[in-house]
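Anyone up for a design puzzle?
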């Protein structure tokens, strides 16, 4: 093993090596993009969840995702106030409204969130200083990370302009900015008070809400309060969820209850299969071309295990060399995609590790198939 025979065999045919590296890199890019989009989907789906300052959450048993919540009676939320350990509660109203771009007057759907400004329910920088502004009629806060199709609202606001437009054909004023970001379900977000929300949606019943946010007193046993709430609110119309359960409920919907999760998983598998075929062709051709040499090594006393290790060394070398350009180009594509779509797609250690392990599996599996050809390396037959 002192002689780097595996590398010498691969590097001897430089064109073949370049083709193999390009093929593996292409397969890695496919897997990176599919897993990246899936991760971005799940991360963006819970952006709003992460920004809500609550310990326990109430949602309807029929709710699936934050962008398609079902309403339930706010009475259930205020019943929770009677449970020991609860500090305060805040109802959230969510619905899509029609936003008019103030520059070109084009309309686009935007997710509208209403809450009682008495309690700062969102964990956002400088959010508290805008609470009094939301108490004014027809004032809203605009998400700076919304898609550009809503108009250059952040630039207009920061330049000192008074930004006015229409939401659901009602004249509104942008009183401030915040940052959450677009999701697969919503291209943009605005936040306003519960009273302004009901002005934008006059057909809505004030007593019906989408999310109940419950804040607990410091030092309280969260699970004990949740168990008490589940017993008290055991009516079959609401789910009592911890913060982790609230987030996982959203992720589980997008990953298992929609076609999107299946499509991205299938795309990853297809990229893996493409890589297996490419690496197998390279290794099989290499073994076939050097079959007399392998037979000579056998005649000299080298064992089958040595020859198998040689092929697997080639597989590892191909995996490592092909992975690096795939990683670099995928990082570049992530940057472009994130800038174009405003989605939370970025390279992280988890993705890098997952794709590298898949690349190693891809090359090892191809090598395991290709070594079957070595069984034919019998000196008596070849010479």
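Challenge accepted. My sequence:
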């Amino acid at each position: 093993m002192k002689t780097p025979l595996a590398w010498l065999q691969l590097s001897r045919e430089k064109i073949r090596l370049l083709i193999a590296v390009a093929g593996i890199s292409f397969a890695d890019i496919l897997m990176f993009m599919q897993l990246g989009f899936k991760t971005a989907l799940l991360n963006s789906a819970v952006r709003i969840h992460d920004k809500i300052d609550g310990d326990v959450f109430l949602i309807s048993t029929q709710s699936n995702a934050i962008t398609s919540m079902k309403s339930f009676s706010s009475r259930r939320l205020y019943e929770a106030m009677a449970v020991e350990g609860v500090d305060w509660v805040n109802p959230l109203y969510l619905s899509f409204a029609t936003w008019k771009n103030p520059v070109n007057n084009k309309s686009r759907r935007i997710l509208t969130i209403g809450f009682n400004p008495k309690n700062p329910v969102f964990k956002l920088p400088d959010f508290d200083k805008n609470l009094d502004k939301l108490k004014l009629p027809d004032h809203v806060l605009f998400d700076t990370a919304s898609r550009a199709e809503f108009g250059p609202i952040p630039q207009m606001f920061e330049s000192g302009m008074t930004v006015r437009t229409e939401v659901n054909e009602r004249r509104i004023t942008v009183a401030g900015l915040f940052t959450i970001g677009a999701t697969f379900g919503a291209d943009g977000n605005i936040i306003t008070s519960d009273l302004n929300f009901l002005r934008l949606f006059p057909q809505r019943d004030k007593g019906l809400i989408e999310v109940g946010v419950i804040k607990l007193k410091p030092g309280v046993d969260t699970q004990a309060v949740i168990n008490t709430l589940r017993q008290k609110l055991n009516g079959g119309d609401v789910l009592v969820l911890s913060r982790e359960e609230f987030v996982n409920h959203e992720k589980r919907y997008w990953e298992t209850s929609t076609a999107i999760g299946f499509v991205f998983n299938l795309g990853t598998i297809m990229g893996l299969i493409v890589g297996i075929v490419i690496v197998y062709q390279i290794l099989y051709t290499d073994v076939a071309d050097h079959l007399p040499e392998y037979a000579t090594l056998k005649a000299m006393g080298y064992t089958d295990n040595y020859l198998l290790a040689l092929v697997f060394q080639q597989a590892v070398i191909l995996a490592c060399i092909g992975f690096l350009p795939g990683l670099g180009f995928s990082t570049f594509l992530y940057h472009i995609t994130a800038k174009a779509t405003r989605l939370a797609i970025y390279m992280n250690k988890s993705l890098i590790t997952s794709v590298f392990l898949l690349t190693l599996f891809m090359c090892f599996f191809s090598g395991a198939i290709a070594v079957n050809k070595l069984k034919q390396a019998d000196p008596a037959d070849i010479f």
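A detail worth pointing out: The chain has a mean pLDDT of 88.
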